[in-house]
Amino acid sequence: FYSKSKQMKLSFAAFLVTLSASAWETSAFTATGTSTAFVSKLTHRPIADRNKAALAAATYATASRRFCSNLTALNMSHSFGIVGATGAVGKEILSCMEKSSLDASKVRIFGSQRSAGSTISSSKFGSIEVELFDVAKARECDVVFLAVSGDFALEHAKAISDGPDGAVVIDNSSAFRYMPDVPLVIPEINGEKTIGAKLIANPNCTTAIGLMALWPLHKLFTLKRVLMSTYQAASGAGQQGMDELTEGTRSVISGEREVAQNEIFAHP
């Protein structure tokens, strides 16, 4: 294994990826009833009250505890970094960490020039000053969540994770999902793929939530084809998408515009 307690990091990498489902849409598929009921039971909250990232995290965390046995046994704390924590997905990752039992010695938040120097309040980690993103600084963390665009991830993810002293990077974007050397992980299904991995990708919302219901069926009956229909939410475009929906709705209701103006989405 690696230096900087890499063995430990790889032991709980599967658990960490449970917090990083970059899903911000509402999915509908044949097994919807099965998956949503399961998620609702775990979260004890109505499905509509939680975005998909939080639901996925709560769902995955229960079954992925088996991957964290080494972490619990060694009782070590680790430093975490979140790149893009001022965005919608990054905020949710921080929120999930606040609700989890992860023993974090330090949480660092990295952002752009615009957000650097600002402060984010955390109920668990106190006031965290946003640092200007820098690869060298990110590499000082044990684990780094990337809540950024695919282009940003392609440019920086491997630079953060490469080498024995690099961080374990969990990427939320689609950048690495089709790369054969990067494990695409749902912990309950292939969590063992995180062992030895420094860069981990997670699938999108439909795949992550859908396979939680479909994987047991596949093991029993060998599924050959699955058709899924998804009804995408505005939050799938992140904070900008939600802002456009809010502003567009306001402008039409107030009579300011007959049709909402759209820049983020293809259609009003």
Descriptive key words:
two-stranded antiparallel sheet; disordered N terminus; 40% helix; 10 helices; seven-stranded mixed β-sheet; alpha/beta; 268 residues; single chain
Task: Briefly characterize the structure.
The chain is of the alpha/beta class and 268 residues long. 40% of the residues lie in helices and 16% in strands.
Structure report:
This protein is of the alpha/beta class and 268 residues long. The chain is built from ten helices and nine strands. Strands 4-5-3-2-6-7-8 form a seven-stranded mixed beta sheet, sandwiched between helices. α3 runs parallel beside α5. The longest helix is centred in the C-terminal third of the chain and has 17 residues. It starts with 5 loop residues before the first helix and ends in a 15-residue tail after the last helix.
Helix and strand arrangement:
Layout: H1 6-17, E1 26-29, H2 32-43, H3 52-63, H4 69-74, E2 78-83, H5 88-99, E3 104-111, E4 119-122, E5 126-132, H6 135-138, E6 143-146, H7 150-161, E7 168-171, H8 187-190, E8 199-201, H9 205-221, E9 228-231, H10 238-253
Parallel strand pairs: 2-3, 2-6, 3-5, 6-7, 7-8
Antiparallel strand pairs: 1-9, 4-5
Helix pairs in contact: 2-3, 3-5
Order of helices and strands: HEHHHEHEEEHEHEHEHEH
Tally the beta strands. Answer: 9
For the sheet with most strands, the description reads:
7 strands, mixed
Overall mean pLDDT: 76
Q: What proportion of the residues is helical, as a percent range?
A: 25-40%
Order of strands in the sheet with the most strands? 4-5-3-2-6-7-8
Rg, rounded, reads: 19 Å
Class inferred from helices and paired strands: alpha/beta
- The global form is globular
Please state the oligomeric state of the protein chains shown.
Answer: single chain
N-end to C-end Cα span: 51 Å
What portion of the residues fall into strands of 2 or more residues? 15-25%
